[in-house]
Fold these 2 entries.
Entry 1:
Amino acid sequence: MTFLVKRLMVLAVTLFVVSFVVFLIPYLTPGDPARKILRARVGDLDADPEALAGLRETYGLDRPLLVQYGDWLGGALRGDLGLSYTSRTPVVDMLGGALTVTAVLAISTLLLALLVAVPLGSLAAVRRGTPVDTAITTVTQAFVAVPEYWLAPVLVLVFSLQLGVLPSAGWEGPASMVLPCLTLALRPMSYFTQVTRASMIDVLGSPHITAARARGLGFGATMLRHGVRNALLPVLTLFSLWLAGLLGGSVVVEVIFSIPGMGRLLYESVVNNDVPAIQAGIVSLVGLAVLITTLTDVVHAWVNPTVRAPHVSG
Amino acid sequence: MALTVSAALTLAACGTFDGGTASSSDGDEQTLTVSLQFTPRANYALETDDALVLTQVGCLETLLTYDDEAGALRPALATEWRQTAPTVWEFTLRDGVTFQDGTDLTADAVARSLRHVLDADTPPRAFTPESVSAVEAVDDATLSITTPEPSALLPYRLASGNTGILARAAYGDQGIDPIGHCTGPFTPVSQVAGQSISLERNEDYWGEPAEIAHVEARFIAEGATRATQVQTGESQIALGVPVTSLADLRDDDDVEVTEEFTPRTTGLYFNLARAPFDDLAARRAVQAALDLDAMASGVYAGGAQPAVGPFAPGELWAPEDAVAPTRDPAAAERLLAEAGYEPGELSLTLLAYTERPEFADLAAVVQADLEAIGIDVEVRSSNYSAIEPSLLEGDFDFALLSRNHLTDIADPLGYLTSDYSCAGSYNISQHCDQDIDELLSSANTMDAPEDRATVYGDVARHLQDEAITAFIVHEQTYAAHRTSVSGFVDDPLARYAVTADVTLGRS
């Protein structure tokens, strides 16, 4: 209970600090906020003075920064994150849609990565020192270095242009998820494989595996019941870190594949100086990251009893 | 467990998809898919650039249209227009036009629509309270528009997409709802914010109805993706194709590429208010030092032409004898000496902005060209917002800018006035010449387009001869379409893409 209360307090303080810093950033960078907003609506460098004056009045941009921030904070506490400067629609609606898209993309990507990485990493560990291990290790190490902006066009070239089996862009059905997921999954898959391998090697050398085998448990059953479960702990931690990162959206992948997710939304909000959207977007993402970390700790404790009951062993 | 997660994920994913049907290949002669480069982001507010998306997809129409080849206005929702008093224009509406929701196009509906734009918190440059003082319905079929001062250009304002006309029901508390509220050949039936808009043929269109039954317009920001979509057949038309994709597209037998000049010219804007560019010889030295051919063919990979002035050859306003300056380093050195500068004496800062990726290379070429005549150039490149204060406060030597000269209406008066008149709102060069101001002022009252063209030609010649700006390139735009598409015109002003004339067969 104390653990949860502490976590919630950390979350509240973190969100407060982050929201203040994020609010300040657009005002600390050079340029007139009203001109930036107008340029987002009308793509012209020249700005109509009357329109600028109208914008300053509408959004109260001439008021002191702290007053503007106080207004935002008051609204946020009532659940009102304001209207986007650009679309003039509630920011909550924009974020909800984008976050759902990105969450689906991120979780699908990481599940795909896990599905490949756990068997592959386990195989490398079991066949440690053999050509199979060398091949898996070398290939996954190489995959870590493959950038998304290179991989995405290559996949489009092969699967959309040459073979014509998958859509090259859009968010229109399960088929449109395949190429973005593959692009994003390569790097986490490589890391997950390497961590699974290292973790499995540790677990395989531990006394309880030897004991299980001595009790007559078969190799496969030992691996599943004792090996993989214990080896998964560090992979789960890595999974949660990747998840928190991917929820922020991948600008490159979302732009190339024209996916209406968080990465594209935040990128466009920054370009358009859409302060309410940036503010709400970053605060939501930080909140989610803290939440995921907390959940990971809970899952960690569930998978590893020694974490949730340290007083027993102590 | 894994199955449960997968099932939940699939359900969640289905909820996020836009429900559009991906049309592939050229098989369906009734559905046209078009990839647009601009994504509407202001909830289709007509005072913003979102209006262009609605005109591009054949939904939104204006009272008049501008025929850029003829350089003349044509009837659209209005059939006649006349100046009934020095500050009053009257428009006669086309008979028998209905909005897609079945309501009639009346002068009252048009006046209401135009007033909505005029009263916006950020009215469009084409239609501001400074240029229009009143919009009123005279009777059901006649609209009257009053200007604060006599203006020959008022009808051009009614050809801007920002002054498009929507039915009364389109204007709600939550912004503009274009679904079923236009007058064009295609009726929007559904949209997915930031993704796409779906349209169906308007069977009650006042003109010749379209052949195509369905249109799916996708908003794809990435140029290479748009190019790929037209190659795979996922789209039949792609606008704004990047130069880097042209070779692949031209090699594809099923794809045709079209090219047009845009009304956009990139130039080196000098700060005339301080040394060294307060001196004509110094400006001409830079003009003579620049290798425009190399920039057009190298930096733009042939996707631009060396500039002959602010207007491209072929535009009505470009002087007939205008030619692009050729590189002459010897003359540049001589001019620099004439301005009183020894080689190596000048050290200048060039501002450039990152929103235009080609500016990094362009700035490097300018740097090299000027180094060859002994001018040391430091390039300061950042996003436009960061350099804007320096530009507006006159705290710079020279800057690379890409300017659209038809940003408000299909006439360059707005651009020339804002950039080069003494009180211009974007006169960052700080150019002030009373003769030029008088010329520009006179153009506003000239009825005949050719008379105005003569004035703009004179101003363009002045800007080039006096090296007020060193114009670098006229930019081109490329579009690609499947060979199965007929009747598509790549509009250089980006107003139209899907029209009633576009048809779809088999390639």
Note: Chain A is about 80% helix and 0% strand.
Entry 2:
Amino acid sequence: MLGSGLIKGLAVTAKNFVGSFHDPERLVTLEYPEQPAKVAENYRNFPFLVSESADDPMGTLRCVACQICEKECPPQCIYIEKSKAKKPDANGKLQLFPAVFDIDISVCMSCQICVEVCPFDAIKMDQHFEIAESDRFNALLLRREQLAKPNSYFHQIHPTEAAQVDAMLAEAARKAAAAAAAKAAAPKPAASAPAPAAGSTRLAAAQSPAARPAPPAAAPRTEPAPPPSNPA
Amino acid sequence: MIAIVTASERLAERWPLMVRDLVTGGLPEPWRWLANSLIAILVILLAFATLFALLTLAERKLLGRVQNRPGPNRTGLPFTGLRLGGLGQPLADGIKMLTKEDIVPRSADHVLHFLAPVALLAFSILTFAVIPYGRHLVPVELDAAVLYFFAAGAATELAIFMAGWASRNKYSLLAAMRALAQLISYELPLLLSIVPVVMLAGTLSTTAIVEAQGGWTAGVIPHWHLLTPWGFAGFIIFLISALAESNRSPFDLPEAESELIAGHLTEYSGFKYALFFMAEYFGMCALCGMGVTLFLGGWQAPFAFLEFIPSYLWFTLKLLALLFTFIWIRATFPRLRIDQLTRLAWKFLVPLALVNLANAAFWSLTRDWSGALQLVRWAIALALVVVPFVLIGRQLTAGIAPRTYRYA
């Protein structure tokens, strides 16, 4: 009959109206500042530096100041100064560390190239997006203290990727330990034995070697002066 | 006991008038009349301005709820930090409107451009004068109140045409033309739907019409016009026409934003725009108030035992229910096309309203039928509502309904 469609339509809106009060599942709106916004696991915006421990982030940075990311960064928003001294990394090997590591996130374009090129899994993409500041120069230039976040945080925001990275790191450490043990057990044949080609870094074995440039520790070369990006 | 109840009831009913007389009682006669009228005007303006402010918020919240959103709930009261579910939103809107720049196009007719919103609001406010808000609360008791109401209400469309013409803008002018077409189309079913009420009550006075709907059958079934066959059909026709008269969705063609930007509002900004907005809501409130008065028993309580609640509260409750229905309809139906709009009025509502007139005449002539004849009376009256509806509906939708949708 004429008009039955109108009644059906009114019933649908009435059902939604009543339902929105007693069934919170219906409300798709997130009351944002009170309820934290949920982001997808693959969401990424700006890079951060991974440290092994939350208690001593500056002492346990994975970064060895190789400056690959600084050179690869398309908008040149990374500025690194190497340390003078060395200190042991997670495997006990002596490494350099960044005395200065700045990222100007007002310049960063979130391309993730720094993450792609890092042979040490030391820089990863963050999900923290509430970055509005009232000072547009200094507040958006993040220092290494602000950039450093523990591995547990990485697990929290990107669980899948963090698990893969941890597995690769563990595998590399195991191989390095096995090689060292084999070397110690059979000193004479070990000299001609095929030492792992990737022994120079603990990672190259685990990751696709083609995509990785040789780490600078293995191929030292003259470092050009840091680009005059932001001398602050 | 009964005397006490009556006394308290009369106190609850009469206190507004008693307060007014306390203020103006000492004045000599012509001045007293003037002061009483001014107080009535002030109260109406304050009450309906508040209702307008809350209605804009309520409409947005209700629409949000229908669409499974919470609606505006952020703006709190200023300086208090209280949010109260967005109760400060109308205040913020008002301040925004007041502080916006008032732009008049260079080639517009400056006088008419200024006059249109003023005239529109004035005509809308005029209609509030004759609605009985309570047992003793009628601002102006006119013998021809219903006629006055619809005359003032129809004039608002002329103000809309004034706005469209004065803006010198093609969208505004098109919207104004549409508004006129809509006015002519829907004024007829609107008036035809209320003629039965006037016929049955035998008067054009709103007070008398409300009093004619007083009383209950067995104390529970009120004698509202809505609960008669002709009254029900008349109320539906009235509701549809009132939606069109107040330019509400789904008949908001004059300001169809997808076609006409903002229609006659295109060249208005700032406070003039707010006046248009206000006038639209005032018109809607007035038409709802008239619908309550004519069909829903005005200030009468629905049940005899609920009569202790003061009459003005019953009127407010019914008014809010009708306004809620308007918002509900807005949340449900898409806008009509201009040819659908006029076709609905001329081919459907006008014939039905005319048949309804005959139905009311029959109802009025058979007033003294009783017993089994009463059943016959109801059957004939119901048939006079349903049969024309089905027949005209079939004839109108033959060949086009039910519609099947084919996807390319």
Note: The beta strands of chain B are 216-217, 221-222.
